[in-house]
Amino acid sequence: MKEFWLGKLDWSALPHEWFTIAGSVGITLMLLSLAAFITYKKSWTWLWKDWLTTVDPKKIGIMYFIVGGLMLARGGLDAIMLWAHQALAGSGEGYLTAQHYQEIFTAHGNIMVFFVAMALIFGFVNYIVPLQIGARDLASPFMNTLGFWLYVAGVIMINMFFFFGGEYAATGWLAVAPLSGTEFSPGVGMDYWIWSLQISGIGTTLGGINFIMTILKMRAPGMSLMKMPPFTWGSLCSMMMVVSVFPLLTMTIILLFFDRYFGTHFFTTSGGGNPMMYTNLIWMWGHPEVYIIMLPSFGIFTEVVSTFSRKPVAFYKSNVIAMIGVSTISLCVWLHHFFTMGADANVNSAFGVATMLIAIPTSALVISWIATMYKGRISFKTPMLWLLGFVVIFGVGGITGVLLAIPPVDFQLHNSLFLIAHFHSNAVGGVLFGIFAGLSYWAPKMLGFRLNERIGRYAVWSWIVGFFVAFTPLYVLGLMGATRRLDTYDASTGWQPFFVMSFIGGLIIALGVVLQVVQIIASIMQRKQLADTTGDPWNARTLEWSMPSPPQEYNFTAIPEVTTRDVFWKMKEDNAQPLPYEDIHMPKRTATGIYISAFAFLAGFGFVWEIVWLVVVSIVGIIVVFVMKGFDEHAEYTISASKVSQMEATRAKKIEEAKQYARDDHEDMGLIEFMRTAPGWLFGLVRNKS
Amino acid sequence: MNHAPTRDEMTHEEAADDRTMFGFWVYLMTDLLMFAVLFAVFAVLLNSTDGGPGATDLLSPQIALINTVLLLTSSFTVGLGLQAVTWFGLTFLLGAAFLGVELYEFYELIHHGHTMQSSAFLSAFFVLLSTHGLHIAAGLLWLGIILIYVLKRGLTRSNVRKLALLSLFWHFLDIVWIFIFTVVYLMPFTGV
């Protein structure tokens, strides 16, 4: 009877190790205090109606940033734990067990790729793409909330091990077979991995379909493909890749699930199974995945460099063709992840050459950025600083990437720390710096005030310096023969100083993260001075800057006609008059995405613990909710032109009021002033019952 | 002038239908890629029988031919159904018959001890076939629900759009089945 209701779940699954107890207590306390705060502020209805059930891509984008930001802290903590362990391991055994160490590096990889990079990228795509193409919402607003909440279900699932099971997968982020089979990974950690990736991966595929529909079918009249802003191009390439490879991930994980639950022989060592097939399939998804998160960042950098150089993008067409080239070629290079694993020399050479080819379009991109800066009037705001840091670090990452693409070199460096340093150069210097540049670039649009520049500069420099201090030693260690995922090494290797230096670099990066949090808080404290009353604080070129910040829910009062590439720049030059107001159709809010994701989560949980009734009930639940939503024919409402004009008038009045506080003539708050004023501000925030 | 309306000429509803149709094509492509993985896996594992019986020993092209006829006919009735909705009733029956035959085939195999745990080849066979079968079952469920709503609300714009999407879905499954018939039931016998 107990087995029927609870499956494999029993007392021993509850937290009993220091890290699961700390994790579960920490998370519970965080949630409880958050709930207490919301109750105290009487904000539950507001939260539910205005945020959780919203279909507005702008709000969903911000929710992606919040969850992705929390996960960044979580994955960053993992990184610090790994660094600290390696720094200690040269003299003694470090402080983690081998098993725990393996679980942490698996978690770090998973979380950073799936739940941080993907989330932050989707945050931007949600917020910015509709604004850039002159759309009011997405092709399917419902699918967008569903995708977001499936992602949230995945996030909760990946952290469930703190509460039940106490064990994370210890297989590396891609769970290579046969290590991920029941024979070598019998625990539930692997099952959590399967279901969190499966659920959030389906959400990603839905998002990909939705944004392709939106970009290809909902652009403002006159905006041909070659007039699209670069960020929209980067997003389109990225989403094209999402729909090309995420189905592969979904099916591969299904097969792994069959191996684990039903004893099939796809990737097993017995029964004729073929573990190498798993390696091939997972990298057919895994390699393009790194470009999926990279391409929107390329787009962000192109926007930033053009805006802050006061010039149109140089070589726009070759820039776009380069992004298409990167996304196409990167679908054909997956085998370079396992040159050493038995393919013959011809196959290795073909994939090696294909890999090196990617350097051509990426160089074309870098040339486009540099040429845009050439003879431009550059203003060095923080987004521009992120860009400059990116070009250097990404250059290093690209060159070492070409090195690794040479099969004979790869035989020496395969799975070494050199490889780790290489892909962190691209993932941190490329993806993350792009995201940070985008955050400070679009913050005025999203929040209505720009971020603190002074503390922002400190954060940029901490990240850049920290990055080089942390990862240069890893390049060296890799050349000295240190392999990745190393939890112990002999003191006689002489590696310890390098590991210690790397750890110090990690701490400098952590300082950068702290400074970013401080930057955001300081900006909120000074939001009246920093307010963006023009809607166009950087004197930018694309449509998202053509409305007041933050945009109204309908984005555009009237859809603009697009005649040229930098259409907003032209509107400013021509001193274009605003178009007359019109009736606007908007989608209604819906909680269906939350219900379906909740059922998907329960189904996954049921699978992990083999609770059959829960799985059945949840799947039936998903179908029922889907049918109810599918036949609901009243998913839209209309805002009349007179209502629009009323809303715009209220907005204009608010902006007039804001203008008296806003001033750009004086330096932003520094760290000392922040420390002096922050406690009082925080106290006031809690006390002030608004 | 008689031409398809461009995006700027469409009404709000027409534009929404147009987007949905396009999005559904993209979805079908993602689904096709999932099948592509299964076909690749089947091709790799075809001879991995672990010493047990292989495709030519176990599979019967005759049964698959019956299923091919059933499914192709059902696709034909889908085409008729878009002209007169009652034809979808026949689609439903033919689809159900297809599933019945497939389940019978599975039952015979399992009854003789050839389960998906027996060898990598059988794992690939069962998962490829049942993934397709599950799609057919989902299509039947979807069709049944739409037909109930057609009875309740009539052929509203949204119901017609759903039937149009379903017909795309059904033809798509038909094409996948043609590949299954070729790759799973014919190619092993030709020695390719």
Structure description:
Chain A is mainly α and 690 residues long. Helices cover 67% and strands 1% of the residues of chain A. Chain A has a single domain, classed as Cytochrome c oxidase-like, subunit I domain (Cytochrome C Oxidase, Chain A), CATH 1.20.210. Chain A has 22 helices and 2 strands. Chain A has a two-stranded antiparallel sheet with strand order 1-2. In chain A, helix 5 runs parallel beside helix 15 (417-447) and helix 16 (453-480) packs antiparallel against helix 17 (496-525). With 192 residues, chain B is an all-alpha fold. Chain B has a single domain, classed as Cytochrome c oxidase, subunit III, four-helix bundle (Four Helix Bundle (Hemerythrin (Met), subunit A), Up-down Bundle), CATH 1.20.120. Chain B is built from 6 helices and no strands. Chain B is elongated and about 65 Å long. Chain B starts with 11 loop residues before the first helix and ends with a helix. Classes of the chains: A mainly alpha (690), B mainly alpha (192). Chain A binds chain B through residues 139-140, 205, 208-210, 212-213, 216-218, 221, 243-244, 246-248, 250-252, 254-255, 258, 262-266, 268, 270-274, 277, 281, 585, 623, 627, 630-631, 633, and chain B through 7-8, 12, 15, 18-20, 22-23, 26-27, 29-31, 33-34, 37-38, 40-41, 44-45, 48-50, 116-121, 123-124, 126-127, 141, 145, 149, 156, 158, 162.
